[in-house]
Amino acid sequence: MYALVDGNNFYVSCERVFRPSLEGIPVVVLSNNDGCAIARSNEAKALGIKMGAPWFQIKHLAEDAGLIALSANFGLYGDLSDRMMSIAAQLGPHQEIYSIDESFIDLTGVPGDLVERSHKIRSRILQWVGIPCGVGIGSTKTRAKLANHIAKTAERKPGIYASKLAQVCNLEVLDQDELNATLAATEVGEVWGVGPRIGKQLVEGGVKTVFDLIKVDPGTLRRKFSVMLERTVLELRGTACIDLDHSPQPRKQIACTRSFGHSVTELYPLNEAVTDFASRAAQKARKQGSQAAQVLVFIHTSPFRKGPQYSRSITVPLRRPSADTAVLVTAALAGLKTIYRLGFVYAKAGVMLLDLQPLTQQQGELDLEDDRCEDRTKLMGALDSLNQRFGRGTVLMASAGLAGDRRQWSMKQERRTPGYTTRWADIPLVRA
């Protein structure tokens, strides 16, 4: 048995924790550089705003319908996510954090009424953190994911048992008639693992609901679509094909890329941006215990702007695999210098660490030169500790320039709310 705990409209809910005046108002959270909507309140969804809608296409709703748009505040969201996950973990013995707002809980061996227990955990998260969430329970991860969707949408769907399924849905306690009616009221595109393209093909083939999908022969789906869709149907039928991931595998490559808040033409601000990106990627590599053997750096102009276009990348091999920030930054800057061309208006840059391998894996070679490899593991550990304790950018490479809004390439975040839980200066004050 599994439970999926998922924060409702998570980014918007995080904003509403410290701004209760946003309750009942259409709210969207915008992506980097305030480009498009990446989170929507139910009121915003009712206005017809789609996920990923560009801000310039929906900004008229600010005047016409009272829409509030906020810049993403990922520091705040990450902190509230940690708090929510620590409470959700009390639901069962094992937890797999699937995303910033979702986690699977293994309910194997948990005694008592699981629905009642889930309601208590949900109420605790709402009271202690301020985030409303839904809980779905099923015998497989796919059924739990589906149950979670039903729990969050039951009240808005006729024909299913809203009072019994709202907020907490356990598919395994429904009788057969209740289960069939619930699955028949749920569109096939809501199933975890059924993407838009496959979902459209299924609907065209007469498979419109989850109930229809379960009745299809898995072997037929494997031949016509993929083995993954076959496993999805088996999971929907109650045959577990996806285990709880207790220790996620390290990523095979690490990337840090950003679009610039303002156009960049000179090499100096590009050096700052690439240094910052390489430093972040290096920290991520050390966190998962990896080191890179190659560094890829790229720059390009915007295809949506008039003028000459330019896009180029280069991969710089390292003599020895490393997770040292200075080594990776030096390689990235060398690559940038090679591909940079004057006369173009650059809109984005990025750094990728490739050919990752464990830090415990060492490369041995004859010492034929004077550049002996100095072990700076403790120095990098101190760097990470300081930035984690006092905030990202507390200690950085000199070529990254001064942190803050003075950087020419910094992202646009004109609508970002304070770091209520991550910066001392932004902690709310209550006066009697």
Features of this protein?
five-stranded antiparallel sheet; globular; 432 residues; alpha+beta; 16 helices; five-stranded mixed sheet
Question: Can you give a write-up of this model?
Answer:
The protein is α+β, with helices and mostly antiparallel strands and 432 residues long. It has 16 helices and 13 strands. Strands 5-6-1-7-8 form a five-stranded mixed β-sheet. Strand 5 and strand 6 form a beta hairpin. The longest helix has 21 residues, at 267-287. It is globular and about 65 Å long. The mean pLDDT is 87.
Share of helix, binned: 25-40%
Query: SSE string, helix = H, strand = E?
Result: EHEEHHHEHEEHEHHEHHHHHEHEEHEEH
Strand order of the largest sheet: 5-6-1-7-8
User: On the 0-100 scale, what is the average pLDDT?
Assistant: 87
> Structural class from helices and strands?
alpha+beta
State the helix count: 16
User: How far apart are the termini?
Assistant: 48 Å
Radius of gyration from the CA trace? Answer: 25 Å
Oligomerization status of the protein chains: single chain
Number of strands: 13
